[in-house]
Design brief:
By secondary structure, this protein is an alpha/beta fold. Helices cover 38% and strands 17% of the residues.
């Protein structure tokens, strides 16, 4: 029986006109771990410390991964690393995949533990809006543990294993899948007690210049700069040469709201905080229709990795309902 002829090229490869199927083999998880850590830190040394390996071991893992994928993943400089376009693309997908694997392993290891949802936001929003409302959610969902990260920094949800972000940012900086909760603006607010001390009535916006004003240095990036002069300008109040400088400057929005509620001055109150303060009777709005826009909005963002988890879906839906509901209910 004749044997089928085999044709080879001079270099032993496939004959001209034919293509050998691309070789596929699994990528080692260890190499992906090393790459993801190095990509996050942009440092083989820091990745090695995180993974309890030597710097040369992480470097070898990345080199092997580059050989496997057929592309350089890093541009190596004297004292720094930079991701190439291929490296950036692989880093995103690797980060999401490893986060999903780690979360699943945690769930398998502790299947009887309560489901946990991690929420990141900025400090004043956590203290003035989120925390006061959570008692309502926790009574309805006693088996869900909520962890709040209120450091105020913008983080990568997938990389840091965070489920939900309540983020303040300009519209152009919001991710495509973010849900817009509100457009931010500010209007003056003061206590009834302070109003009564100054005659019980304000006839025009210019009258506010006679009252003590509270300014916020701002724990928010891109906040209103020289906020009171800007509000007076929007209100049509011309500067008369007399200073309307605030008598109190505080570092955080929640401090400014508390000071205003105690009658220490008038504050430019942001949405959504002022609605709760007015509903509770702590503050009143003398000129509610004169508002200055900050150019920012509040957005709800859910991690791609955890958006299908039941506890995350329940908290997300509840947050949307609370924003739609308006001022806080008394727990």
């Amino acid at each position: 029986m004749a044997r089928a002829a085999t044709v080879t090229t001079k270099d032993g490869g496939a004959p001209a006109g034919s293509r050998r199927p691309a070789r596929k083999r699994p990528i080692g998880l260890a190499a992906l771990r090393g790459f993801e850590s190095a990509a996050r830190h942009l440092s083989f040394t820091l990745a090695a410390a995180e993974l309890h390996l030597t710097q040369s071991a992480v470097s070898r893992q990345v080199a092997a991964l580059e050989s496997d994928v057929g592309h350089r993943l890093f541009i190596r400089k004297t004292r720094a690393l930079m991701l190439t376009p291929a490296g950036e693309k692989l880093a995103r997908s690797t980060r999401e995949a490893l986060s999903a694997v780690d979360r699943t392993v945690d769930e398998v290891r502790g299947r009887t533990a309560s489901p946990r949802v991690v929420v990141t936001t900025y400090p004043s929003f956590a203290s003035l809006w989120l925390v006061p409302r959570l008692a309502v959610f926790q009574r309805a969902h006693p088996g869900i543990e909520i962890r709040i990260d209120a450091q105020g920094r913008r983080i990568d949800l997938e990389a840091e294993d965070v489920d939900i972000a309540l983020r303040r940012c300009p519209p152009q900086d919001a991710p495509p899948d973010a849900v817009k909760l509100l457009d931010e603006d500010a209007t003056p607010a003061l206590s009834a007690e302070l109003m009564n001390r100054f005659g019980g009535r304000l006839q025009s916006a210019a009258d506010l210049s006679r009252l003590p004003l509270i300014e916020v240095e701002d724990d928010l990036p891109g906040g209103l700069v020289s906020a009171w002069p800007r509000w007076f300008e929007v209100a049509g109040v011309e500067a008369d040469g007399e200073s309307t400088s605030p008598v109190m400057v505080v570092a955080y929005i929640d401090q400014s709201m508390q000071a205003a509620a105690r009658g220490q001055g008038v504050v430019l109150a942001y949405r959504p905080f002022r609605e709760d303060a007015v509903a509770s009777g702590h503050l009143m709005l003398p000129f509610p229709d004169i508002r200055v826009s900050t150019g920012y909005g509040m957005y709800l963002i859910v991690s791609k990795v955890s958006r299908g988890r039941g506890a995350v879906v329940q908290l997300r839906d509840w947050l949307l309902e609370e924003f739609a509901r308006g001022p806080a209910r008394q727990p």
